[in-house]
C-alpha cells in the first residue's frame, strides 16, 4: 500500500475519453501511440510507476488540443507485456484521485501535470463501506440494465463481490457517457457513487422504454 509521502508532485497524464480508473480497481490498457509507448517506458524507470488517467474536456468545433478535466485518478503500473509488433498491454491499479493544478512543460512527447492529492487522502485508506447498500434490489436493477444494453457478465462473481469492488468495477465498465464517468469519479463517497450509478442505470432503462425505479 502506498503512503501519501510516496506520491509525486507531478504525473504523466494519459487523457482518454470515457476511460475511468478508481482507487483499488484495475484498468487494462492497450498502448500503441508512440508518445504513450514512451510514457510507459519512462514510467517503468520510476519508483512509484504512476500514470494519471484523466478525461479531456470537449472543445467547441473540435479545434485545438483539448483541455483536461480537473479531477483524475493515478494508477500504478502493475502489469506489462509487449506484443511482437511493439505494442504494450498494461494494467493500472488505482491508487488515488488527484486534482490537476496545471500542466507542466517538459522535453517529453506526452502531457504532464502538477497535482494535489490532499482532497482525496481517503483513497489511500482501507476498503470503503456503503452501509446503505442493498444487494438484492441492486442486482435486480443491474440485471434489467444489462439485458437492456445487451451486456453479458459473470453473474456469479458479481453476486459474491465486495461492495466497493462491485460498485467501482461497474462504474468503470458500464457504457456511460464521458461526463457520467466523470461524475462517478468525483463522487465524494462510495455511497454517493452507488447512488449515481443507480440513477444512471435507471435513466438508461427509462430511455429504453422501461419506467421502473428502484426505491
UniProtKB/TrEMBL annotation:
Residue ranges of every copy of the Lon N-terminal domain listed in the record: 11-205
In terms of InterPro entries, this protein maps to: Lon_prtase_N, Lon_prtase_N_sf, PUA-like_sf
What is the protein named? Peptidase S16 lon domain protein
**Gene3D superfamilies with a match to the protein in the record:** LON domain-like (2.30.130.40)
A Pfam match is LON_substr_bdg
Task: Please list the coiled coil stretches.
Answer: none
Amino acid at each position: 500500500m502506498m503512503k501519501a509521502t510516496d506520491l509525486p508532485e507531478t504525473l504523466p497524464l494519459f487523457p482518454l475519453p470515457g476511460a475511468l480508473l478508481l482507487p483499488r480497481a484495475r484498468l487494462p490498457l492497450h498502448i500503441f501511440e508512440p508518445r504513450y509507448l514512451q510514457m510507459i517506458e519512462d514510467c517503468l524507470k520510476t519508483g512509484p510507476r504512476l500514470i494519471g488517467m484523466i478525461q479531456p474536456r470537449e472543445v467547441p468545433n473540435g479545434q485545438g488540443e483539448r483541455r483536461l478535466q480537473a479531477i483524475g485518478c493515478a494508477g500504478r503500473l502493475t502489469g506489462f507485456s509487449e506484443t511482437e509488433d511493439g505494442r504494450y498491454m498494461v494494467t493500472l491499479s488505482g491508487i488515488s484521485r488527484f486534482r490537476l493544478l496545471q500542466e507542466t512543460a517538459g522535453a517529453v512527447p506526452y502531457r504532464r501535470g502538477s497535482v494535489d492529492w490532499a482532497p482525496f487522502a481517503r483513497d489511500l485508506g482501507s476498503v470503503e463501506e456503503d452501509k446503505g447498500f442493498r444487494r438484492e434490489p441492486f442486482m435486480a436493477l443491474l440485471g434489467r440494465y444489462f439485458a437492456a444494453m445487451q451486456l453479458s457478465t459473470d453473474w456469479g462473481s458479481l453476486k459474491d463481490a465486495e461492495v466497493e469492488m462491485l460498485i467501482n468495477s461497474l462504474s468503470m465498465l458500464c457504457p456511460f457517457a464521458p461526463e457520467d464517468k466523470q461524475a462517478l469519479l468525483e463522487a465524494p463517497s462510495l455511497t454517493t457513487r452507488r447512488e449515481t450509478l443507480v440513477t444512471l442505470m435507471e435513466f438508461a432503462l427509462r430511455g429504453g422504454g422501461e419506467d421502473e425505479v428502484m426505491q
